[in-house]
Write a sequence for this structure.
């Protein structure tokens, strides 16, 4: 795809409100998010459970309609059939017709896209091999494990050779080898100029492949940009590992750190670049033995937790979805 | 020709899934067993009546099980699409939501055609064993049973678009039951004595019923077959038009509700 072309996904001021209960109480699932995804990007969509990721993805795929705002794919309405012809979608925890085999399911999907019999067979064989299901091609889907259904789901999402692939939690239920295979598949899509939009809880995988990310929390976008823009914004971190005399906890000696974890008999703490000398002096004065001192780049997980903590501090009543005023 | 292709693909997928569903196999075997039972029942009746009993029993069994297959499989398949979320992967494909509803329904009508054909063959076998005359009127009767089952199934698809399978099943079977006795309401409305004369405030309800519910008595040829009355082809044509009109209404309403629905 031509990167100078317009955005593949445009989301403007998207709101989604669900009426809940007998009194039709309004609950905001998504509250005014805006972002764009450019052609050829791998875009990571992050957020804790209940942040509004799946709701947003369902709006992108036309499964639910926005309460307010605009969503366009390839510059057109999401329900436009030309858009859908170019779209591949893997829903969260996919489930398919119990009594069909993977070959029959992919043939069914291929027919919906109007692919010829020859092309359906060719792509079915290719994709079943790519997701490691060649051996299970004649088994009915009701006998498939969760991870195998996930693989079939990815195969059906790619059957039409889409320009835009939307994957909702594609790594759920996969073992580390399966995750690597799927991430390699995602990278190969990028090499072929495809745009990939996916949500995941597995931040290390997102960090490995994504060009841009958006972090969603309580229905709002809290961070959005390239990884370089987002991860350097707060400066770099120093990680210090130390042990204390008599195995005492640091707070017993009046030492406080923002992020402190116990690792066996010693401790690991993160300190800001600007405060590193002062922190080391405090540790040495308390009789601590410094085991290692490592400068490391902030990870997506750090960013994710930082944004989560920041919001928790700012908002007194965190909830998965917030009630409308 | 995108729409017919999409609808046919959805129908084909629905038929394939339904044929392999154990509920369909169970209902078909049960109905064949029921038809076989008519051999025993007709044996117990006096000789002159045994053929009539076998014919009447066959009409009743095929009609009941065809409707049961349409309602139960229809409700299960449409409900499952939403409940277990198979629809999430299918609806974002290049199709309109109304095409999904029509495709699903067409698959169910193909299933009903297979069901009625299988039961029809079993019934003809039973009648042949009872040495009953095998006339073209039986085929006409089977055709009308198929139309009736298709109509009730379209109601089941409509209800499945917005409510749970239990309620969908109850509502659809309610339409079947009321539709089967609607001719009695018509007769009472036309009578100079009886319920609607004694309680005139009930008359608007009776009149509303004749408008809101389809008259399924139109599709019951058992009396004509029993008394050897030939059914003209024009009647079959009119019955077909009547069924198609009701099916169109139910499917249009179902598609409208489906169109407005959020798949949360």
């Amino acid at each position: 795809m031509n990167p100078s072309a317009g955005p593949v996904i445009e989301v403007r001021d998207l709101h989604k409100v669900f009426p809940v209960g007998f009194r039709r109480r309004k609950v905001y699932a998504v509250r005014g998010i805006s972002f764009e995804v450019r052609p050829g990007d791998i875009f990571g969509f992050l957020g804790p459970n209940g942040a509004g990721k799946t709701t947003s993805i369902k709006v992108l795929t036309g499964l639910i309609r926005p309460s307010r705002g605009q969503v366009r794919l390839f510059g057109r309405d999401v329900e436009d059939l030309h858009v859908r012809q170019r779209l591949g979608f893997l829903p969260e925890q996919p489930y398919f017709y119990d009594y069909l085999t993977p070959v029959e399911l992919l043939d069914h999907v291929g027919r919906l896209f109007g692919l010829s019999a020859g092309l359906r067979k060719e792509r079915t064989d290719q994709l079943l091999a790519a997701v490691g299901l060649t051996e299970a091609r004649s088994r009915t889907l009701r006998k498939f494990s969760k991870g195998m259904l996930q693989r079939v789901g990815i195969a059906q999402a790619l059957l039409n050779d889409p320009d835009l692939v939307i994957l909702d939690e594609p790594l759920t239920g996969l073992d580390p080898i399966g995750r690597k295979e799927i991430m390699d598949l995602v990278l190969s899509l990028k090499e072929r100029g495809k745009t990939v939009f996916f949500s995941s809880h597995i931040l290390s995988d997102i960090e490995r492949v994504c060009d841009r990310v958006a972090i969603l929390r309580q229905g709002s976008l809290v961070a959005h940009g390239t990884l370089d823009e987002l991860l350097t914004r707060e400066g770099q971190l120093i990680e210090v590992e130390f042990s204390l005399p008599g195995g005492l906890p640091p707070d017993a000696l009046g030492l406080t750190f923002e992020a402190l974890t116990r690792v066996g008999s010693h401790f690991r703490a993160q300190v800001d670049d600007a405060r590193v000398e002062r922190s080391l002096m405090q540790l040495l004065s308390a009789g601590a033995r410094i085991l290692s001192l490592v400068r490391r780049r902030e990870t997506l997980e750090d960013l994710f937790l930082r944004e989560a903590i920041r919001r928790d501090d700012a908002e007194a009543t965190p909830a998965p979805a917030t009630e409308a005023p | 020709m995108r729409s017919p292709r999409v609808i046919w693909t959805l129908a084909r997928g629905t038929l394939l899934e339904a044929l392999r569903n154990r509920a369909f196999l169970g209902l078909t075997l049960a109905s064949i067993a029921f038809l076989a039972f008519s051999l025993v029942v007709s044996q117990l009746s006096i000789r002159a009546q045994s053929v009539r009993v076998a014919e009447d029993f066959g009409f009743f069994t095929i009609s009941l099980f065809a409707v049961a297959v349409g309602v139960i499989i229809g409700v299960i398949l449409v409900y499952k699409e939403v409940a277990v979320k198979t629809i999430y992967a299918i609806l974002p494909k290049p199709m309109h939501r109304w095409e999904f509803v029509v495709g699903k329904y067409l698959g169910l009508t193909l299933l009903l055609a297979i069901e009625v054909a299988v039961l029809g063959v079993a019934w003809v076998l039973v009648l042949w064993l009872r040495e009953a005359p095998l006339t073209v009127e039986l085929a006409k009767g089977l055709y009308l049973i198929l139309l009736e089952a298709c109509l009730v199934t379209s109601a089941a698809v409509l209800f499945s678009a917005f409510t749970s399978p239990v309620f969908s099943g109850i509502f659809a079977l309610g339409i079947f039951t009321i539709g089967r006795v609607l001719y009695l309401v018509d007769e009472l409305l036309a009578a100079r004595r009886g319920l609607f004369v004694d309680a005139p405030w009930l008359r608007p309800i009776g009149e509303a019923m004749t408008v809101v519910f389809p008259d399924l008595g139109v599709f019951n040829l058992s009396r004509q077959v029993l008394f050897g009355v030939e059914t003209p082809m024009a009647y079959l044509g009119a019955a077909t038009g009547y069924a198609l009109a009701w099916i169109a209404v139910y499917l249009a309403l179902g598609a409208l509700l489906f169109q407005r629905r959020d798949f949360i």
